[in-house]
Amino acid sequence: MSENGGLNCDCNTESYPSIVKGGYVETSEQSFVINGKPLYFNGFNAYWLMCMAADPSSKSKVTDAFEQASKLGMNVVRTWAFSDGGNKPLQTSPGVYNENMFKALDFVISEAKKHGLHLILSLVNNWDDFGGKKQYCQWAKDEGQYLSSDDDFFSNDVTRGYYKNHVKSILKRHNTITGVAYKDDPTIFAWELMNEPRCQSDLSGKTLEDWIVEMAAEVKSIDNKHLLECGHEGFFGESIPDMKQYNPGYEVGTDFASNNLDKNVDFATIHIYPDQWVSGGSAEDQAEFVEKWIESHIEVCKTILKKPLLIAEFGKSSWSSGYTVEARDEYFEKIFNMAYESASKDGSCSGTTFWQVFGEGMDNWGDGYQVVLEQSPSTAAIIGKQSQKIASLNSPLEM
User: Pick from 200, 189, 256, 266: which is nearest to 25 by CA?
Assistant: First the structure.
């Protein structure tokens, strides 16, 4: 292991457009651009950043993760800008915020800027973790609203109002460290409406789509400088019935093509979890699913949506059968190669953010997918190699 915890990498991070020199990331057809020049991404997820930053004893894990990412040439991080009710809440009740947690998010953003990293900030969870739509629905019930299921989050006037207020609170926040409002900070690459939105009470995807259109317009009415994506996993729906063959055998109330078509949605995302979605399949079945899943979305983004695609979550769980670090490395390499192949040929896939980086000593937070870079030199080397390849496609900005 090297002096840097196994993070040996010849990555030339100066190849990356600096968020200090550059402006806001924009899109041009199916490509990301900054100051008119192409921009491609290699990065990671770390949902825990705000929570760790809120505690003085663990705050340094944020800085450590960003330092490691920079050494490996990564240039984007996806994380949560929500924690609704429950333990360590950012939003303790509708419209009421914990200033200590907000200052922790300020710190995450300021540290990302220091390390030349862009951020994707997600605004609410589909799942119960950190509150999510379930907490919003409970708050509405506490106010006397009748909701038949948590899917009413998307259509109930009260929950939609709560969400819009949260959007305003986040976007208009002035960072206590940098003094810059979030909506005016180029460190933030994009807003994400929701992590993995699903509405299984309406499999047509229409309920979700109506919500996306409304909330995307709300975000853009406050902040039209930053890009926006809706947090989609990629499940196809009725708008292109032929593409449903690429779903993992079921639907979740989304429609990848039509949900991402709205003018205020700037780019599309997919997630990939074959060990969960094709859990009964052989390794070959899962590998075939991954390949077709990526290829089909690259094609739809290029020909129909005409928007960039980000592979926003993928990983291999140590809890799944047949797991080895070698198998994880091979899996990462396969997805990295497909992303690079698309990017290098002017395809729609413009980058990846794998799930997920952890710091050392965070085992009790684990979900099996965590990569502790200091303890995973082979995986770190593959990530660094991808950064170099991606960096070769990025045009350095003029000073």
Answer: 189
Q: Is 284 a known active-site residue?
A: no
Q: H-type helices in the chain, by residue range?
A: 49-53, 60-71, 99-114, 132-142, 157-171, 206-222, 256-259, 274-277, 283-300, 325-344, 377-391
pLDDT digits (tens, 9 = 90+) for 63-88: 999 999 999 999 999 999 999 999 99
Q: pTM of the full predicted structure?
A: 0.95
- Report the 3 state secondary structure along 206-272: HHHHHHHHHHHHHHHHHCCCCEEECCCCCCCCCCCHHHHHHCCCCCCCCCHHHHCCCCCCCCEEEEE
In Å, how far are 52, 108, 142, 268 from 64, measured between CA atoms?
12, 12, 41, 30
Active site residue 196: yes
Instruction: Locate 322 and state its tokens.
Output: 């047949």
Contacts of 220 (CB under 8 A, 6+ apart): 228, 264
Chain length of the chain: 399
Select which of 111, 192, 196, 233 is catalytic: 196
Q: Which residue has the tokens 């300021």?
A: 110
For 226-264, how does the pLDDT look when each residue is reduced to its tens digit (9 = 90+)? 999 999 999 999 999 999 999 999 999 999 999 999 999
- Collapsed DSSP state (helix, strand, coil) of residue 310: strand
Q: Where are the domains of the chain?
A: 13-391
Catalytic residue among 111, 192, 233, 313: 313
The two structure tokens encoding residue 274: 């074959």
> Looking at domain 13-391, what is its CATH homologous superfamily?
Glycosidases (3.20.20.80)
